[in-house]
Amino acid sequence: MARKQELIQNFLSAGNFTSLYTEEADLKSYSTMKIPSFADLIEVKSVDELKQIVSFLTENEVEYKVLGWGANQLIKNRPTFIYLKLDFEFDRNILNEIRPSYVLPASVSLAVLTSAASRLGLGGWEVFTGIPASLGGAVFMNAGTGLGEIGPLVKKVRAITPVGTEKIYAAQDLKFSYRENNFLGPGEIIVEVELSHNGYDDQVRQKITEYLKMRNQTQPLKENTCGCMFKNYLSDKISCRAGQSIDIMGLKGFVKDSVQISHTHANFLINLDDASYDDVVKVISLIKNELYLQYGIKFDVEFEF
Fold it and tell me: Which of 77, 140, 176, 299 could bond to 37 as cystine, CB 3.0-4.6 Å?
């Protein structure tokens, strides 16, 4: 571990990088679930530096993962890999006018895009409402709400491969399914997205306002959660909602090791008081097994862990 940290520190120092490396960074504040965790972290300031960094990490057999905004992601404590957090410059002025499409950095917040949608009346962008994620993370998992998914709005994706080369995914390459992208290769990192919209819609502001109100009433948005726990089960023969299934089993409010199934929405886990990564994983496993016993269905976990 010490050798790995020394290698990275020397590499960044020798190259006069603006990206910041922190050994054993406290990542609790980076997680929407506020899980206590420490890990090596590089805050990457530009695409050019990212190319060099991932190439170096790959060459030295150092595994990496993108941290994103810490939502839909259960952050590990002292993992063997290193976390990368993208922090690219962004000129918000491009969101001051309606354009056919927008080329945006992966690190931009969906909250910024929701605000632009409300201000400009960008139809289709209401699907971002209330999702605490970066654009890159949202595209990676085809994030969505009851209003729709981000996939249909994506025109082009620019990614960096593990060897530091660029890769462009044009419209014909983009394949999405429920909460998944089906085009990115292992270790590839989204750095830029061209995003379209459905034209001007004078109802977008109202849609966003009403949907935010509904989400606040039906989901524990003010609690320390990691977003929805399980994907809804969809097949040709059956459709089964995870939250409803857990609710029917009477598990709302269930608590184990400071992890609680939300009273508001049964598909959300709440960190009551410094629950650990292992505590959360154990509760997920317990609920998953109960769902299988009751319904004969294996629900997939929605967030990364």
Answer: 77
189 φ/ψ sector (left φ>0, alpha ψ -120 to 50, else beta): beta
Q: Measured between alpha carbons, how far is 155 from 128 in angstroms, rounded to an integer?
A: 16
**Which residues, in sequence order, are CB contacts of 250 under 8 Å at separation 6+?**
none
- Please name which of 71, 65, 64, 63 lies closest in space to residue 30, comparing C-alpha atoms: 71
CB atoms near residue 132 (< 10 Å): 18
In this predicted structure, the answer to whether residue 7 has a pLDDT above a threshold of 80 is yes
Token pair 């909602």 is found at: 241
Residue 258 backbone dihedrals phi, psi, to 5 degrees: 70, 15
pLDDT per position as a tens digit, 164-214 = 999 999 999 999 998 899 999 999 999 999 999 999 999 999 999 999 999
Question: CATH for 221-295, among 3.40.50.2300, 3.40.80.10, 3.90.78.10, 3.30.499.10?
Answer: 3.90.78.10
* 92-196: CATH number: 3.30.465.10
**What 3-state DSSP class applies to 130?**
coil
Question: pTM for the complete prediction?
Answer: 0.91
- Please check whether the domain covering 2-86 is classified as CATH 3.40.50.300: no
Least Cα distance to 179 among 135, 121, 211, 140 occurs for: 140
